[in-house]
Structure to design on (110 residues):
């Protein structure tokens, strides 16, 4: 049980601001967005995607995949935080408090 605790489980956050002025820019934006979604990231907010990882090693695999998708232009940020830190998030929709996303239940086979 030590293996799956709130300090070993990680969340990878990818946030980006990519240009969309030209057709090529829009194509690159779509390619990047689709690529991170194919790697298991889900939209948290517009231009911010998150992924749950069971370990640092698993997070590193997904960080490498995101880095391979980076477009030539734009600003991209990648942040890795523990499940404990993510659990402290306060989310609001207007003035109302909203529930944070559920932690995915993943089965690990050895």
């Amino acid at each position: 049980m030590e293996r799956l605790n709130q300090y070993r489980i990680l969340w990878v956050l990818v946030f980006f601001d990519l240009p969309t002025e030209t057709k090529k820019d829009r194509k690159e934006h779509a390619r990047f967005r689709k690529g991170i979604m194919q790697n298991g990231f889900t939209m948290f907010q517009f231009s911010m995607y998150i992924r749950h990882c069971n370990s640092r090693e698993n997070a590193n695999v997904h960080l490498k995949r995101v880095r391979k998708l980076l477009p030539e232009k734009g600003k991209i940020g990648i942040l890795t935080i523990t499940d404990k830190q993510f659990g402290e998030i306060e989310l609001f929709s207007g003035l109302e408090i909203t529930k944070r996303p559920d932690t995915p239940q993943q089965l690990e086979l050895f």
Summary: Strands lie at 10-17, 42-45, 48-53, 75-82, 91-93, 96-98. The mean pLDDT is 89.
